[in-house]
Automatic annotation (TrEMBL):
<dbReference type="Pfam" id="PF03992">
    <property type="entry name" value="ABM"/>
</dbReference>
<dbReference type="InterPro" id="IPR011008">
    <property type="entry name" value="Dimeric_a/b-barrel"/>
</dbReference>
<dbReference type="GO" id="GO:0004497">
    <property type="term" value="F:monooxygenase activity"/>
</dbReference>
<dbReference type="InterPro" id="IPR052936">
    <property type="entry name" value="Jasmonate_Hydroxylase-like"/>
</dbReference>
<feature type="domain" description="ABM">
    <location>
        <begin position="7"/>
        <end position="77"/>
    </location>
</feature>
<keyword id="KW-0560">Oxidoreductase</keyword>
<protein>
    <submittedName>
        <fullName>Antibiotic biosynthesis monooxygenase family protein</fullName>
        <ecNumber>1.14.-.-</ecNumber>
    </submittedName>
</protein>
<keyword id="KW-0503">Monooxygenase</keyword>
<dbReference type="InterPro" id="IPR007138">
    <property type="entry name" value="ABM_dom"/>
</dbReference>
Amino acid sequence: MELQKPYYAVIFTSTRTEGDNGYGQMAEEMEQLARQQPGFLDFESARDGLGITVSYWESLEAIANWKSNMDHRVAQRNGIKTWYSWYKVRICKVEREYEFTK
């Protein structure tokens, strides 16, 4: 992934409650919705007990608009009520990156 720097990363780290309870479907819907938002750049996610989802954005304004998106707000409320036992959100400015590929 080669993005124009600087850009912003929203790091969402979480632990889930037991059972799916509609989480899988909502997660897919939120990824697709995020990809349609102005300023969205990319998305990466992994879960093995601890879940880490990172979305990349052009600006803090784009992040704020995503946070206030009505469908996303419904998912946030369901997350607190049903899907997460804990979560933390970090917003970071990415000024430099590098990678290795074999």
